[in-house]
From TrEMBL, chain B:
Family: Belongs to the CbbQ/NirQ/NorQ/GpvN family.
Lineage: Bacteria, Pseudomonadati, Pseudomonadota, Alphaproteobacteria, Hyphomicrobiales
Residue intervals of the ATPase dynein-related AAA domain: 45-179
Name of this chain's protein: Protein CbbQ
Gene from which the chain derives: cbbQ
Residue intervals of the CbbQ/NirQ/NorQ C-terminal domain: 192-275
GO molecular function: ATP binding; ATP hydrolysis activity
Top-rank lineage group of the source organism: Bacteria
Keywords noted in UniProt: ATP-binding, Nucleotide-binding
Alphabetical list of SUPFAM superfamilies matching this protein: P-loop containing nucleoside triphosphate hydrolases (SSF52540)
Chain segments annotated as transmembrane: none
Pfam families xref list: AAA_5, CbbQ_C
UniProt-listed InterPro entries: ATPase_dyneun-rel_AAA, CbbQ/NirQ/NorQ/GpvN, CbbQ_C, P-loop_NTPase
Amino acid sequence: MQRQSADAFPGDLHQAWIRACRRLSGAGYGEGVTDAYVRLSPQIARLVSPQTAVDLAGVVSGVAIRAGRAAAALLPEQALAAAETVGRDGFPRWLLLVEYVSNSAPESLAILFAHMPQLLLQVGLEGLESWTRIGIRMAEGDRERRLRFFRLDDPSAIRWLQRASGQIGFADMEAKLRPFLTALWGDSPPLRETPSNAHEQTRRRAGFDGSVVRLPSSFPGFQSADAERLYRAAVAHIGAHLRFTRERFPVGGLKPAQIALVSLIEDARVEQLAMRELPGLARLFLPFHTVQPSSAVTAPALFARLARALADPSYEDPNPWIAKAREAFLREDPHDQQLSRRIGNLLGNDLGQMRIQFDPRNYVVQPPYRDDNLGLWDFGDNDSQAEDAEQVLSSARIRQEENHERPDRIEQESRPDGEAGRVQIEPLSMEGVLVARYGEFDYVTGREQPDWVSVKEYPANAATAAQVARLREKRGDLADRVTALIRSARVSRAERLRRQSEGEFLDIDACIDAVIARRIGETPSPRIHGRYERRSRDLSVLLLLDVSQSTNDRVANGRRTVLDIERQAAALLSQAMSGLDDPFAIAAFCSDRREDVRYTRIKDFSQPYDSLVEARLAGLQGSFSTRLGAAIRHAGADLATQRSYRRLLLVVSDGEPSDIDVEDRRYLVEDARKAVQGLSRLGVNTFCVGLDSNAESYLGRIFGQKNAFSIATIDRLTDLLPKLYLALGR
Amino acid sequence: MDRGIGSAAVEGDALGDFRIVSEPYFRPVGNEVALFEAAFASRMPVMLKGPTGCGKTRFVDHMAWRLGRPLITVSCHEDMTASDLVGRYMLDADGTVWHDGPLTLAVRSGAICYLDEIVEARQDTTVVIHSLTDDRRILPLEKKNEVLKAHPDFHLVISYNPGYQSVLKDLKESTKQRFVAIAFSYPEEAVETEIVANEAGVDRPLAQTLVRIGHRARNLKGHGLEEGASTRMLINAGLLARRGIPIDEACEVALVLPITDDPDMRDALKSAVSACI
């Protein structure tokens, strides 16, 4: 032992290592901890470096204090395994990660160690780092939630792991699938991710129902390119149903096996029609039919072979039942939807005679791109069969979890009375409607966590408009000055002016005229120059008001609150801009943790500025926190659709961004900064007005020194505007 | 594609280059030929409306050939001034010389003048055609101090694509109301197949596949694409395919890449193309 260690630790380090061992054993963490270190650290020294192996003792001791002896005893072994996986360069980062977890989630370290080798292989060191950070942050300080996450009991833990490992999931494919479906079939039903609380079988397959297409979060077991193809095939298949399945089949008195078979024949029928129109779909569908003839005569195996036999003309199967089905299928005209029912019933009866058992509980449609067929069936009224049928179709009621459309476009669908499998849309209430998820930038890892923040839109409360009108009228003088300032602002594309007495280029037409005039003896006009100039305003503005709790504070030298000043400024600006016909919108935001960033539209671009808007301004109340980045992203997405030469997001805030689930003060600042940079890439200028704040340094960091401006009273608005237009004029 | 424009000119014919000698291929979809002939008979100005690449320009070529008139085409752009249309004085060694613009040339010598994409031109430019498009049929050349009476055969045709930039740019009401309009759109599948097969010189099954691909892209109009794939694009893809380029690659080059810059949209279109083949 001594000799071995002497090899591993040359020179002075050997003494250091012995001292480290003594310290560990003297600290009383128990034999297990010391033994593990003494036994394994020489190997780590060889794999990584002797110094690191000596330093490891400090980490072990720290872990023993915070996370307990069990975790500390595991550490040397884990360190050795990690050193083998991540190599010499990655090892210090791995150690930092362990320290981070033992500081922030000590109870979970031992559990994390249990999965560590496998996780490292799956997602790599970097992926593991961001995944643990997400877990710790998501738990929001709740021990139990952290434990669930690291035990992988929490479904979101698995989802984030998928993301970290780069597995293709719905979120990656959504933007591609939507136009693909539209291109193929000409209609564009909304696509939704199957909620994670849905039934296991529902989560494994795609599905559709009337207006909504539902897709699994991921198809486990399929890697990148295959998963992409699988999603495309699923969407193309559902598109074929939407086109060719004219009416739902009544469940009636059908047995589960018959339901499954009718669905299977119907799948084959619509695919056949689809492939007639779009022959390339065969290349998409057929590779997923991988089943081969075998002697097994279980229902799932036979069904999969039948599916293949009906889809793939080159497939040969000796089974007489399948041959019969194929023959019957090919004899009929595929445009007749009832053929599925006829053949399905027949085959179901045969299956009964062949004494083949069908277990609806464990049946999953094959191949994986096909949907769960829930959308094919009409369950009628509370039929006792419905329950059985539901089982076959592995249905779980799906609650509409989110709606990507804007709230004003939510379809108020009539609520189907207890029909199985219908998507139920909860009636609108004063609850917010989830409209978008945005990523958030983590400056520590330097990466963006996708879909981290949920923005919900809340309807605006209205109060008495007169209150705001009074605020506005009180400063009528100011209103005129603001209007005059905006009117004189020139923010547009440069135009070419001809026949100027001075300018930057010669106006050739004018020059020729001048020469002609001289030749025929007239006095030539001296206006022979041309120049470029901005002459009009072509600018859309979105005013984003911070209505967090702190806006209820009074301003330093006055009786009014920050929110009052925001209201007044919004009213003045709106009045001026609507008088000049400039597109102008107002929205307000606050946040209650990352799951609930509240966004309220007060005035849309197309809406006139009227008493309703003033009533909504009056109804604003300050509450919750300031998650600036998400609000900026959401407002920016709105603004980016405006078709004007310049687009300006004007943020009015009273302080630094904050939220109760974030402790690191710098985190939200850096995220907001990233959001602003993102908008400038979209061609949206962002400008911030800090009200009565000494947070100017933060604002400067977020928006850039030239784009942040702090004012204490409303009078300064007139100083602000020229500065703003000057910034835009560039 | 032989556009049939050549100089089989009669000696001394100033418009020789503008005559169309051989028949440009055109497959009528409705009765647009009869409509145009009727409008031409009373020299009524004609407006051709329709999405890009659906055959407006080809139709004018064809009609000019059919009516035996020279055709002067002007592609309008946003910097075009009235003198680009009417003409201007130029300098030469001896002094200034007047040069007729394309519109003046057509008015003087009795050609069909085709102003392509007229909305692109600035509004103050388009008003010069006003006096030509009512019963006056004159073109005042104020710089030259001349009022030009239109040749009896002069005929004005404009094209106008209402789809794009419609909000920012539109014709003045007073301009619009001077024209009769013939609407064009992409022909139905069978006809379009015939056109693609003929123009690209490919066989019918390939042409049909191309037309189906075109329909996929047109499905996306308004769902991420400003315009669907035009017949012209399909013909281009067909021409590439005839030269031995594999059809999926031909479609990518002629159709997918030009039509969108959005990577997701491209991906979706590419998958849709491969679903058609």
